[in-house]
Design a protein that fits this description.
By secondary structure, the chain is mainly alpha-helical. Helix content is 73%, strand content 0%. 42% of the residues are buried. The mean pLDDT is 96.
């Protein structure tokens, strides 16, 4: 990394310590990218304590993926739900995944549709899959194909 980049990361860390939520989120991501999952978990926890939806979502990801803490969907779900209810598309998508894994397909589809309505390509792909398979919605291959096309055009590699 260049000296300029190191300086930028240092300034972000300093701003994070001063309580700037945006800096806390960026600092946590930088820590995760550098392999310090425990540090990222701690900083996303600090930022999430403010109720910031992106921080709540990423703290949920830590619980879901085991980044700096044991894997625990039961701890991830309420964090995703708070962020999803605030309108964050990634949290809506992530909440849908947790719900689908535990078999709450109708509720999962509701959250995938909420994220899809915001143009979230991965969510559009999953709405297509639910529609293709008839999970919690009538089976409609023609609609599924159109949704797969939209997801592919939005960049979702699975839909492509």
């Amino acid at each position: 990394m260049s000296k300029a980049g190191e300086g930028d990361l240092g300034r972000i860390a300093a701003w994070a310590r001063q309580g700037h939520v945006e800096a806390q989120i960026l600092h946590a991501q930088a820590l995760l990218d550098a392999g310090d999952a425990a540090g990222a978990f701690a900083w996303w926890g600090i930022a999430a304590s403010t109720g910031e939806p992106r921080a709540l979502n990423m703290l949920g990801r830590c619980h879901e993926c085991g980044w700096g803490t044991p894997r625990d969907d039961a701890k991830a779900e309420p964090l995703y739900r708070r962020a999803a209810e605030a309108g964050l598309d990634w949290a809506q998508y992530n909440l849908g995944g947790v719900l689908a894994r535990r078999g709450a397909m109708a509720e999962a589809l509701r959250w995938y549709r909420a994220a899809a309505a915001q143009g979230h390509a991965k969510a559009i792909n999953l709405v297509a899959r639910f529609t293709e398979e008839g999970w919690a919605t009538p089976r409609d291959p023609a609609l599924a194909l159109e949704l797969y096309r939209q997801a592919a055009e939005g960049g979702d590699f699975r839909a492509q």
